[in-house]
Amino acid sequence: MVSKRHFTGHSLMIGRFQPLHNGHMEVIRKCAAESENLTIGIGSAQYSHEPDNPFTAGERYLMIDEVMRDEGIANYCIVPIEDVNRYSLWVAQVESLSPPFSTVYSNNPLTRRLFKEAGYELRETPLYNREVYSGTVVRRKMVEGDGWRPLVPRKAAEVIDYTDGVGRLREISGRD
Ligand code: ATP
Ligand code: MG
To answer: Whose CA is closest to 150, among 48, 22, 36, 57?
Structure first.
């Protein structure tokens, strides 16, 4: 096996991006600036059309890609990653889909533990305005029709608009 040291400067960050919001972008900007190349993993890629996972992997891909282009960040790639529902296999799943990397940015204790056991360098990132820069808050505001736009990058809002993301989320969140 090739040593992870060979891929120093190549890093990974994983989120569900349901949807991409300004908190994610603060982290992505910082990680991309510190890295030669940043892989952005789209977690739980198989889910869509659910109240907690309204957007498809492709729609989430497009949100990230459009915003990165808009900001002039080029040293990244995007990889959709489906869940495996077996934590002992999670790192192998990510490794099989991502370009090689040596550093993982995550604050999640389980993610940190799993990648540490596999020999990766772990880095933490600060949380920005977490009371509002949160997928859960953005989705709630979308359903309630209240002020979600200022919480997401403009280009992500465009993707949400032309997929009728808010209409979809409202319908699938409705009770019959
Ligand atoms: P949800 O409420 O749907 O879980 P989320 O805002 O937690 O959404 P995720 O896609 O689950 O977003 O987040 C992936 C990672 O993005 C988190 O583990 C966290 O490290 C980072 N992140 C999310 N929000 C912020 C924020 N406001 N500031 C910094 N990092 C954030
Ligand atoms: Mg989360």
So the answer is: 22
Residue that is written with structure tokens 């990510």 in the block: 94
Ligand 1 near 108 CB (within 6 A): yes
46 within ligand 1 shell (Cβ under 6 A) = no
Alpha carbons 161 and 35: distance in angstroms, whole number:
32
Q: Letter for the amino acid at 60?
A: R
Cβ(10) – ligand 1 distance below 6 Å: no
* 132 Cα to the center of ligand 1, angstroms: 11
pLDDT in 10s for each residue of the chain, 176 residues: 678 888 889 999 999 999 999 999 999 999 999 999 999 999 999 999 999 999 999 999 999 999 999 999 999 999 999 999 899 999 999 999 999 999 999 999 999 999 999 999 999 999 999 999 999 999 999 999 889 999 999 999 999 999 999 999 999 998 65
pTM for this model (two decimals): 0.96
